[in-house]
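Key idea: predict the complex, not the pieces.
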Amino acid sequence: MKKQNITNILLIEDNQGDADLIQEMLLESGSASSYKITHVTRLKDSVKQLQNKEKIDVILSDVKLPDTQGGETLTELQRVADYVPIIFVTGSNEDLAIQAIQGGAQDYLLKSEFDSEVLTRTIRYAIERKKLEKQKDDFLGVASHELKTPITSIKAYTQVLNLRFQKAGDKTSSDLVSKMDAQLNKLNNLIGDLLDVTKIEGGTLQFHEDYFDYNNLVEEIVEEMQRTTDKHTITTQLIKTKRIYGDRDRIGQVLTNLIVNAIKYSPHNKKITVKTTVRGTMLHTCVEDHGVGIPLDMIEKVFERFFRVSGPTQDTYPGLGLGLYITSEIVRRHKGKIWVESEEGNGSCFYFSLPLQNNTD
Amino acid sequence: MNSQNKKVLIADDDSAILDSITLLLEELGYSVETSVNGETISKLQDNLPDILLLDIWMSGRDGRDICRKLKEQSHTKHIPIIMISANKDTEKIALQAGADDFLAKPFDINDLYQKIEKYTENTI
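Result:
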């Protein structure tokens, strides 16, 4: 007798009729897989199921649930389900379903348009697709680890040289080596960006949150960024701020990304400013440059993954096109907002907001 | 307290990292020993270091197991262990395995120095 594969399905559907229909379809399918279905009606019950030991192979979820919908459902599921493929089922709202695909769901089905065969095929496809995605992400994880190894030793060698030059009083050579170090940091950040994108996709981006001095962080980043450019002057106008609660490294990454862009996109103008203001309960930070600016039709797109701007001579600026995507994800997860004001030819101001804590000194 | 005569033991499977970090630490005044093979670390008997920098993953050997073992043995449990990894998200895992602290690769020389000094404050 052939051994049956059992596919564990988590069905999140609050409409009993729809749930029954799906379960019937799966039972009547003659495929080699047999299905074990766990049915819940709310998102929060599904979270409990996913946190149990028993492995779920695929999630079938209505796009609209009593306690959530669409994109929020997806984010929550991705947070607790490690690489589980997700298929959304929708009555008629195809837009919500498409948004879910863009957010990382594997497929969607229209309630009026599927039968047993379509359902079982869709499930198989989603499982295979997720396997491929995981392979790709695992590979990127290994690749970035491998890439960081030689960078670690090169960085250590440059720091040895720096110490020796300083001891010998050779400031010129010491400065040269500091510039090398700054470029190594740039390289390291690029690799980090690659890795971060795979984590965002896989729902595994973690934060280590604590209280920290925000102005202190800004000054640190500005100093580090200043070392990467002779042509620009980065200044700060910071209001006195209370402590911020968040992941200091990741917020630093946000600042770094915005300043790197400001430098990159103002090849002819030297002034870059980082300003902070308070608006209600939020701290607003603005990174301002006077460079090429962004055309009106592209302003919406700049935060999209892989998006890169073309220069006036039709060649593309260097970079992976990941910085703003990751930056916006970090800000969003800190419960802030990010946006840009820009005019083509006149530079840009990238803003992001972070919640201020009301109860600290 | 200066860094003179403090003994640092580094375990990492990349020989360039061992070489460069050794040079760096010696430049800072430490005396350094290295191990490319986790096996010898878990068998430490005498000539114990004042602090251990341990890579979390070394060619098939899990740094966390080595860390746990050292922290269980009475003659090695006092040695401060700083776990190192290319992935900064492994900090929590490292601390759970009993490491005293964590450093992400590539290191900043100041971070490295500060952490070593912090955990070897009481070394004569």
